[in-house]
Structure formats: C-alpha cells, structure tokens
Amino acid sequence: MSLLATGIAPRSFYSAENAESRITAHFDGLPADFVAAAVAALGSQFEEGFHSYNVVNPHEDAVSLDVIVDWLIEAGEPIRRIDHYGDWFMRFDTAVRGLPESLRKYSVYTLMDGYRQPQTALSGSAVPADKFATALRESGNGTSSIPHITPGLVAKYDSGPEETWPGGTRVTYRSLWQSLS
Asked: What is the domain count for the chain?
C-alpha cells in the first residue's frame, strides 16, 4: 500500500553484483488473514509449554517484491521505478512520513529502517518453515497449507482496506489517497 500511496518503487529491492540484471529473489510475506488463522489454530491446540514457529512463506517460487511491483504496474497502477536505490529510499521515506495519519497507519512507516538498504536476494526463505508447515497440517483446523503470494492476492490488497467513516461513508485506501492527491 505504501508503494501505491507514493507511486514510486526502486528498480529492484535487492542488491546485485550486476545491476543490469533482474535478480531471482523471494518475498517471505504471507497474507494477514492466513497468519491470523494459523496463529489462532496453532495456539488453541496447546494448553501448556511454549511453541515457536517461523511464520514465513517457504515457497521457492521466484515471487519477490520486484515481481509484486511488476504485478501492480501490469494492473495499471501508476508506479514509477527509481534507478538508484538510495534516491528511491530518500523520496519514499519523505513521502511516507508526509502521509496523513489516516493513510500512514496502513503504511510501512514503522518498518522503514528495514528498507534503508537493498535486501540480499535469496531464492527461498532465510529460515526454515518445516515445523510451521507440519503443525498446520496436523492442526486439522482448515489452515493446512502455507499459501503462495499470487497476482490475485496482490489485487486484493491493491483495492485496499475499507473503512466506514461517520455517516456511513465507506472509504478504501486507494480512494482516500486519490482524493488527497
């Protein structure tokens, strides 16, 4: 959503030896509704002890932040790529900080330090998710497999969260941003 609000993205979110080539990288993110359901399902089956899981997307499917930006652009979103990562970050940081609070609360504002430098490209997750995947399969609560990030999921997030404002007006992130632009 922050990319949609600012309209800019780096040429690549990942560092590369050869800056001219696209990197095959991986995004560890998962759909928020899936994570909530998984935490509820796994948390409800234990009454004692401690259990920890790497709640990450383990799929080696070449879906990266760069690919997600490609999907948004292909869907018609006016996102402009900035060649130099440092230039992009300075502009992005300024734009995100300048968002009205009603939009900033949906942004990466609190996570900005994680984007200060290009990420290291990995083809899969940096941590194993085997224990998480096994626990999901064994939970029997309908959350048995870890989903892939897909163009359809990105389109769902692209339409943005919807809020009902006083007076019953329903507003999406995108419509609010467009009205403020």
From this structure: 1
The encoded tokens of residue 49 equal 């002890």
List pLDDT tens digits, range 64-77: 999 999 999 998 88
Going by their DSSP bridges, the two strands 162-164 and 170-172 should be labelled as antiparallel
Q: What whole-number distance in Å separates Cα of residue 128 and Cα of residue 38?
A: 17
Which residues are CB-contacts of 16 (< 8 A; sequence separation ≥ 6)? 23, 121
Measure CA 126 to chain center. Answer: 16
Residue ranges making up the domain that contains 62: 2-180
- What is the C-alpha to C-alpha distance for residues 81 and 27, in angstroms, rounded to an integer? 19
pTM for the whole structure: 0.78
User: Residue 136: which CATH number?
Assistant: 3.40.50.720
Please tell me the distance from the alpha carbon of residue 22 to that of residue 114, in angstroms, as a whole number. Answer: 21
Please count the other Cβ atoms lying within 10 Å of the Cβ belonging to residue 19.
Answer: 12
The 3-state DSSP class for residue 101 equals: helix
